[in-house]
Design a protein that fits this description.
The complex is a heterotetramer, with one copy of chain A (736 residues), two copies of chain B (82 residues) and one copy of chain C (249 residues). With 736 residues, chain A is an alpha+beta fold. Chain A is built from 26 helices and 28 strands. In chain A, 36% of the residues lie in helices and 23% in strands. In chain C, 21% of the residues lie in helices and 23% in strands. The chains are: A alpha+beta (736), B alpha+beta (82), C alpha/beta (249). At the B-D interface, helix 1, strand 2 and helix 2 of B face helix 1, strand 2 and helix 2 of D. Bound molecules: adenosine-5'-diphosphate and magnesium ion.
Chain lengths: 736, 82, 249, 82
């Protein structure tokens, strides 16, 4: 009965099928096949990535729980831990931007509170096609309102993120959502079903025919026929999720349960088998007891449904009544649908018949891992030799063009739709280099940021990945926080294409090299393959989320210029590099060349120096140099303060003016300090082997740059500000 | 002429708002209400449009702008005007 | 004797803990959580309806919460002259409940708005503003989708005539401008009181502007005013909170 | 029995949603559309309710819960069931 076409529809190969038969000692029935197809999908099984992810560093003094659980756990002292992770919801967000993004937020929130942590911050990393195309605008508009609609109602602040634009995301936007939660160290819960005789409870929304095969869809290439493959799109219910949160935290706080697992991709199947496998037990489930939204659902549909806002709990029989009472308080049912049993098998019945009887270990742990063929990534289109690259007649015009390019332009249009202040912890709002959250009842604070320049990774995956980690840590250093942990969301094309696998292998190498240099463990993450639509792969986009700790929030630093007369100091060395820059892309229309080089050791020295200087109260403002280089960093530092002070900067050297202004050489930070402190700052830098140079001073109404006394740039702050501020909103204005 | 377009979730799609309203009505004692579905209604005034033109125009507008065909269905009627 | 605050918890409230934190940790006043299904106001002197999305804001913001058992007690409490403060969703609930006149429409640009705004104190002779001064400009965040205040012309005239408009959106200099009225409210209304003066609703979140670390302490004016009014009467030490005048940057 | 309740803004209330939809339609070239009003529609299933009972029950529910009389008006009809 199980033929080729059936296997294809389940994204399983014949070899995989043979293996299944071998493992379970029989021909699977359709329902059992469905179970394997989702649990062995790329999305759940990490078939193509596992062999590479092994190379990531996962040890560290803060680590309580590394990869493998719903999210990583780090000890931040004071009896508290943080739980954080990032997830992708790319394909669903393309099919239905609002609901796709909304349910993406819902999913990562459950990953966090299923471990006993209250989500205290969300960040979103977004990639779209250029906004001049109305289709891209409607996807972006939908995604942003979806994130806002879900996160705001749930009551978690969306405190940061990033938005990039490139044609490679036209038909395949990226929506990655990061969430961080806070918990008491002794109240962290795991997805374990332990203790024979313990009851299995189902809580949350009823099960409908939602997103059936979402997991397998997220693991298949997109094409014109996706229309037909399209599952019943899931609609998020943030209100129900909020009730779930409060009820779950209450039963966990009172230690009424043994284990808990959210129902994400592969819903009931994943949660039941994983909990049993992790507990080294078996599980029996009666599907007739599962609350159902639609009539006539088959076991296949009930087990594979991806209806949102559902959780699975395991509790001792004696505690069930108490658990149910707490859920009732929050207007939620918590029916018992099964029991933990010895013997490591999942036995699932429906209308009195056994419809599934398989060893959980086979489903959860024995998914094959592939070391897929690797080819060197396609070499980047060569950039014209710098001497052939015309210098813009008017650098002021070029400057305004870079400021107005959607990727560099102000993102307030996005983040003011997000409640970024609820829970009254957000000390640094979106707009700073990193978000900063105070930890109530202490002087300590948590800093966090997401970063990735997909163009760099497209041009050189390994360097690009190193830079993503470096920039994220630099963003933290700019506010005064030390990085303590990393999560990552690796968005790539079709892993069956050797050059895509090549990009992946290189990026993972760069990622682990950088993490080792900074001494930060990777505690978890997510891999999203098959970001190919109609044969086109996206830029390899390894989004990096780094979390940092700050001992004294009183020392926090912001990017804005503080006072006229302050010295403007450039930390780090500038090279004549224009490859992969935003300038090359916007002004010359080239996505070409080699990305900026990065020396990780030097980067580390520069960041440690900056942190030391901030500790010593020498720094009044700090902003990292990223897209748009020095010119944009100067502008953003001017914009960030309400008084919009300009600056007068004089640079040395023989470098081309455009490289000087817009080059994106790494490891650089723009700092201001009191004039009298400049000497001490320089001395400290020298003693730490960090190149710094006082390049000018804050003041005036213009952003003015001279080179060896000759003016190369002079733009009124107001003019620059409007170019940067009005760019995104202008795309979304409805003309009347 | 004036037309009315009703937009609502497909039956198979979860309707959190309708469910929440139903639960509220129950706690308020309206036990007779066994189900609630919530949707949107649009009333459009069309100028210089014949019934025949409307029959092409309205469904097009509904599909492209008013409803999200992936999760919603729509129905429409002419309220007044020939 | 220090006054006692009660913060009402509805399903979907999400500024309940924030408000509790500010009242108990920052203002240092005894504060209790009140559960929407209860009937007991636990003898509080002031009931605060916090921000959030009660019942998901499904149907209409505040439309379902107003029916919860506790709200019938709050209604009676208000009729007896008890102080009731509604913040954001709490304001919307007070409108739906009819304790305050008018209704909320979607923000004029149909987007959720989270940002710091400036509001001007229009009336400093209220239980909620006496610690401030008329014309004083406060910097306080908003975070809402339905903050576009509407009332029929006659009602609006009465509100103005009786000086029930307590806060108006304005710019940093205190000018009421089209641009400063971010959500499109009639008469740039950000907060109103009832005729008797014991019930106030406002869209901005004073609890998000009560600690310097969060960028503004202007919101404390509202809480300090309540404390001033209710504790002055009693034989009590002058509350620490009221020694400093509300400042803003 | 199934009833349908239409809730829409009173004419005196300017409806920002409807205006935005109208503007969007104009920019898309649907010039024939001269006005758009947006409202909500609710479909309720009532069990064991006679038409007579419904005539009392439905307006009560609409007035108390589904519509805000300050800004909204409602109309209702029986879709099926006697
Ligand atoms: N999608 C988003 N959601 C929330 N905040 C965002 C988003 N995109 C950008 N931001 C905020 O805008 C600011 C600038 O972002 P970005 O240019 O990526 O900073 P950097 O280049 O220093 O990493 C940051 O504070 C960031 O958190
Ligand atoms: Mg960035």
């Amino acid at each position: 009965m199980i033929d080729r076409s059936l296997l294809e529809r389940h994204n399983l190969t014949e070899d995989e099928y043979t293996l299944i038969v071998e493992l379970i000692g029989k021909e699977p029935n359709l329902t059992e096949l469905g179970i394997f197809s989702v649990m062995w999908s790329e999305h759940c099984g990490y078939k193509s990535s596992r062999v590479h992810l092994k190379r990531l560093p996962t040890e560290g003094r803060h680590v309580v729980q590394g990869p493998g659980e719903n999210a990583g756990v780090l000890d931040i002292g004071g009896g508290q831990v943080i739980v954080f992770k990032i997830e992708s919801h790319n394909h669903p967000s393309f099919i239905e931007p609002y609901q796709g993004a909304a349910t993406g937020v819902g999913g990562i929130l459950r990953d966090i509170f299923t471990m006993g942590a209250r989500p205290i911050a969300v960040m979103d990393s977004l990639r779209f096609g250029p906004p001049d195309d109305p289709r891209n605008r409607s996807v972006m508009g939908g995604v942003v309102s979806g994130i806002s609609g879900y996160g705001n109602a749930f009551g978690v602040p969306t405190v940061g993120g990033e938005v990039y634009f490139d044609p490679c995301y036209n038909l395949n936007p990226l929506v990655n959502v990061f969430c961080l939660g806070l918990a008491d160290k002794d109240k962290v819960f795991y997805a374990k079903a332990e203790g024979a005789g313990n009851k299995v409870l189902y809580v949350g929304a009823k099960t409908g025919r939602d997103g059936i095969h979402g997991a397998t869809m997220a693991s298949a290439e997109f094409g014109k026929d996706t229309e037909h493959k399209r599952p019943n799109v899931q609609v998020g219910d943030p209100f129900k999720e909020k009730l779930l949160l409060e009820a779950c935290l209450e039963v966990m706080d009172r230690r009424l349960i043994v284990g808990i697992q959210d129902m994400g991709a592969a819903g009931l199947t994943c949660s039941t088998t994983e909990m049993a496998a992790k507990g080294g037990m078996g599980i029996v489930v009666d599907l007739d007891k599962v609350p159902q939204r639609e009539a006539g659902m088959t076991p296949y549909e009930i087990l594979l449904s991806e209806s949102q806002e559902r959780m699975l709990l395991v509790a001792e029989p004696g505690k069930v009544a108490e658990v149910q009472a707490i859920f009732a308080k929050w207007d939620l049912d918590a029916p018992v649908i099964g029991e933990v049993v010895p013997g490591g098998r999942a036995r699932i019945t429906f209308k009195g018949q056994v419809v599934v009887d398989i060893p959980v270990d086979a489903v959860v742990n024995l998914c094959p891992a592939y070391d897929r063929p690797i080819a060197a990534p396609a070499p980047p289109p060569p950039a014209p030799a710098l001497k052939d690259l015309p210098l813009p007649a008017d650098l002021g015009e070029a400057f305004l063009a870079v400021l107005a390019s959607p990727t560099v332009a102000d993102k307030e249009w996005v983040f003011r739709q997000y409640d970024h202040m609820v829970q009254v912890n957000t000390a640094l709002l979106p707009g700073a280099d990193a978000a900063l959250l105070r930890i109530k009842g202490s002087k300590r604070a948590l800093a966090m940021t997401l970063d990735c320049n997909g163009l760099y990774t497209r041009l050189d995956p390994r360097t690009g990945a190193r830079i993503a980690v470096a920039e994220a840590c630099r963003n933290l250093a700019c506010v005064g926080a030390r990085p303590i942990g990393v999560t990552n969301c690796l968005n790539f094309g079709n892993p069956e294409k050797p050059e895509v696998m090549g990009q992946f292998e290189q990026a993972v190498t760069g990622l682990s090299e950088a993490c080792r240099t900074f001494g930060i463990p990777v505690t978890g993450g997510n891999v999203s393959f098959y970001n190919d639509t109609e044969g086109l792969s996206i830029h390899p986009t390894p989004v990096i989320g780094v979390v940092g700790l700050m001992e004294d929030i009183g020392r926090a630093v912001t990017p804005g210029f503080k006072a006229a007369g302050d010295a403007v100091v450039l930390v780090g060395e500038s090279f004549e590099e224009l490859g992969g820059t935003e300038y090359l892309k916007t002004v010359h229309g080239l996505e070409a060349g080699a990305p900026p080089a990065i020396d990780l050791e030097q980067e580390k020295r520069n960041q440690d120096f900056l942190l030391e200087a901030i500790e010593a109260r020498l720094v009044r403002s700090a902003h990292d140099l990223s897209e748009g280089g020095l010119a944009v960093a100067l502008a953003e530092s001017a914009f960030h303060d309400a008084r919009k002070r300009g600056c007068q900067v004089d640079l040395e050297g023989t470098m081309r003016a455009d490289a000087l202004l817009f080059g994106e050489s790494q490891s650089r930070v723009l700092v201001t300090c009191r004039r009298k402190d400049a000497g001490r700052l320089a001395k400290l830098a020298a003693s730490r082997g960090v190149p710094v140079r006082v390049i000018g001073r804050v003041g005036g109404a213009d952003l003015a740059v001279t080179r060896a006394g000759r003016e190369i740039l002079r733009v009124p702050v107001g003019t620059a500000y409007r170019a940067w501020k009005d760019s995104l909103p202008a795309y979304f204005k409805i003309r009347t | 002429m004036r037309v009315r377009i009703l937009v609502s979730f497909k039956d198979s799609v979860l309707d959190p708002q309708g469910q929440t309203v139903k639960n509220a009505l129950h706690t308020m004692g309206y036990a007779a209400v066994t189900d609630v579905r919530q949707g949107k209604v649009f009333e459009l005034d069309l100028e210089g449009t014949t019934r025949k033109e409307a029959e092409a125009l309205v469904p097009e507008i509904a599909r492209r702008v008013l409803a999200n065909p992936i999760i919603e269905k729509f129905a429409w009627e002419i309220l007044k005007g020939q | 004797m220090a006054m006692k605050f009660g913060v009402v918890q509805f399903p979907g409230s999400n500024c309940d803990f924030d408000t509790f934190h500010v009242l108990s940790e920052v203002m240092k006043r005894p504060t209790v959580m009140l559960w929407h299904k209860d009937h007991d106001l636990q003898g509080v002197d002031c009931v605060v309806l916090p921000g959030g999305f009660s019942y998901g804001d499904y149907l209409r913001s505040g439309a379902i919460a107003r029916f919860s058992p506790l709200m019938q007690e709050v209604k009676a409490f208000a009729r007896r002259g008890g102080r009731v403060l509604g913040i954001c969703n709490g304001f919307q609930i007070l409108l739906e409940l009819g304790l305050l006149p008018g209704a909320m429409l979607r923000n004029k640009d149909l987007k959720f708005l989270c940002q710091h705004v400036y509001v001007r104190i229009e009336n400093d002779r209220t239980d909620f503003t006496r610690a401030g001064t008329k014309g004083q400009v406060l910097r306080i965040p908003i975070a809402h989708f339905d903050g576009n205040y509407y009332a029929p012309p006659r009602v609006l005239r009465e509100l103005e005539r009786r000086e029930q408009v307590v806060f108006r959106y304005c710019d940093a200099g205190g000018e009421v401008t089209e641009a400063a009225n971010v959500n499109g409210s009639l008469n740039a209304i950000a907060g109103i009181r009832n005729e008797a003066g014991n019930v106030l609703g406002l869209m901005p979140h004073p609890e998000r502007a009560s600690e310097r670390i969060l960028g503004s302490e202007d919101g404390r004016t509202v809480f300090e005013s309540l404390i001033l009014g209710l504790e002055r009467a009693r034989p009590a030490r002058r509350p620490a909170a009221t020694r400093r005048k509300a400042r803003h940057d």
